[in-house]
Amino acid sequence: MVPVIQSPLLAGLKGVRHAFFTRQGGVSSGLYDSLNVGIGSSDAPADVTENRKRIGDWFGVTPDALNTCYQIHSAKAHVVEAPWGAYRPQGDALATDQPSIALGVLTADCAPVLLADAQGHVVASAHAGWQGALTGIVEAAVAAMERIGAQRERIVAAIGPCIGPKSYEVGLEFFERFEAERPGSARFFSPGAVADKRMFDLPGFVLERLAEAGVRQAEWTGHDTCADEALFFSNRRAFRAGEPDFGRMMSGIMLG
């Protein structure tokens, strides 16, 4: 079994399985050591296939039933009614009421968000980078869940490992865009190392978006992907190190 991180909130739900996978427990090597699931990476395709199979095995589903999107940092959500196989539509959130399907989200600093209405038998996954978080991917995921029977006041959500507020340095133009589009966002920014930089609290911002969407119970696991090279892939860390590519991790949820 590959190692996983779990949310106490989601782990307490009956009939819901979830996992935030780390970079450990796979077969990839080099920059992608070891559980890289990024189909778009330059990793050996056979290794990526095996890594995704291991995640499917953890959930007890075939790789064809491990559904993921071609992620585009959007606010687009899909309702999933059947296993997709190799099909990957563009979008950044998935929702289903089908017990035979695992919903996956790929990240390497962006925030993976897993949501469940256990009573309504509906689950969802979302990819919340700063762009998706700002433009409404959380609300889109909740709305997709509602279309198939969920009630937002019953939804429980968890944000998995992502870049933390002590690692996410941004420029003033980033800060100014958030303030312009969502006044009051300044509380998610703190001073950077120099005057024209700020530190951004991505998980804190996503938690607020969840609350605004009517999700009453939500938490962040507290893991900073950029700060822990042994456990996590990180786009930001790879860029700082001048590396040509980086691995991607998966987070997943399903009914059953």
From TrEMBL:
Which SUPFAM superfamilies does the annotation name?
A: CNF1/YfiH-like putative cysteine hydrolases (SSF64438)
Is Zinc among this UniProt entry's keywords? yes
* Keyword Ion transport in record: no
Provide the alphabetized UniProt keywords.
Hydrolase, Metal-binding, Transferase, Zinc
Spell out the reaction equation it catalyses. adenosine + phosphate = alpha-D-ribose 1-phosphate + adenine; inosine + phosphate = alpha-D-ribose 1-phosphate + hypoxanthine; adenosine + H2O + H(+) = inosine + NH4(+); S-methyl-5'-thioadenosine + phosphate = 5-(methylsulfanyl)-alpha-D-ribose 1-phosphate + adenine
Against CDD domains, the record matches this protein to: YfiH
Q: Can you tell me which family this protein belongs to?
A: Belongs to the purine nucleoside phosphorylase YfiH/LACC1 family.
Q: What is this protein called?
A: Purine nucleoside phosphorylase
Name the species this protein comes from.
Answer: Caulobacter ginsengisoli
